[in-house]
Amino acid sequence: MADQELDARGLNCPLPILRAKKALNGMTSGKTLRIVATDPGSVKDFQAFAKQTGNQLLESGETGGEYTFILKKG
Amino acid sequence: MASKKMAIIASKGTLDWAYPPFILASTAAALGYEVQIFFTFYGLQLLKKDVGFLKVSPLGNPGMPMKMPFGPKWFRDINWNIPNAVQAVIPGFESFATVLMKKTIKDKGIASIPELRQISLEAEVKMIACQMTVDLFGMDRSEFIDGIDYAGAATFLEFAGQSDICLFT
Fold first, then answer.
1. DSSP-assigned letters across all residues of A30-48
2. How many domains does chain A have?
């Protein structure tokens, strides 16, 4: 279980990233954030986000048109 | 590690062209970039207190699909190819196209321009209005949002010269 959840379903670029960033701002280092999105572009975008921000992408998956990501705050 | 820098010139004042500078600025700020946007010529419209008047124009814009954001799927899929000469004589054609575009933006979960601008401001994106264009267009500082600077080319170039990414939009 992640420490915090973010529902980004129905949101388009760049809102899933911006909402995730906002959620991470309120979290302490080492905590995890689980994001659910429907934007297919978010798969590549969360990889790029993790790579550039030092927050670790622990999981990335897809089931039935929904994309799930787990980020660990760096 | 020093943060990366991105410098953008925003020179267009339509609803569609308001997106590139604000999407890139807000996202870059979320990635830890230091961002400055220099608003010049028609781009100054993006700094007005209320940006609800921004319009999109299909006139002379053959790349712009004209699709209806309502009705059955077969109807939505039609790309209405309306000749320039017809568009030009219909009063309010731009306003009509803008209403359709705004509805599509909302239906597809795309952020509004006021929202992206607000996120950018909260993320400390520095916004600079071109003082020369403010004078040229006879605008007044009271028309613009607070928290912006007024300066010229030398100010932009100082930051742009150290930037990792530099864009003209």
1. T-EEEEEE--TTHHHHHHH
2. 1
For residue A23, the chain B residue with the least C-alpha distance is B30
Element housing B26 (H / E): helix B19-30
pTM over 0.90: yes
Kindly report, residue by residue over B35-81, the tens digit of the pLDDT. 999 999 999 999 999 999 999 999 999 999 999 999 999 999 999 98
Number of structural domains chain B divides into: 1
Taking CA atoms, what residue in B is nearest to A15?
B111
- Residues of chain A positioned with their CB less than 8 A from the CB of B31: 49, 52-53
- Strand pairing of B165-168 and B5-10? parallel
- pLDDT, one tens digit per residue, over B123-153 is 999 999 999 999 999 999 999 999 999 999 9
| Token pair listed for B93 | 């054609």
Domain range for B35: 5-53+112-168
Q: Is A12 on the interface with B (CB under 8 A)?
A: yes
- Domain containing residue B117: CATH number: 3.40.1260.10
CB contact under 8 A, A12 and B23: no
